[in-house]
Amino acid sequence: MLCIQKGWGCLTDPKFISEHALVMVARLKDGKTCLVLAHPTEGSIIRLTDPSFGVIGYPCVYENLVFFTASWSGNDEIYSFDLLSKKILRYTNSNLGNYFVNVADGKLIWSKFTAEGYLLRRPAGCH
Question: What's the predicted TM-score (pTM) here?
Answer without folding.
Answer: 0.88
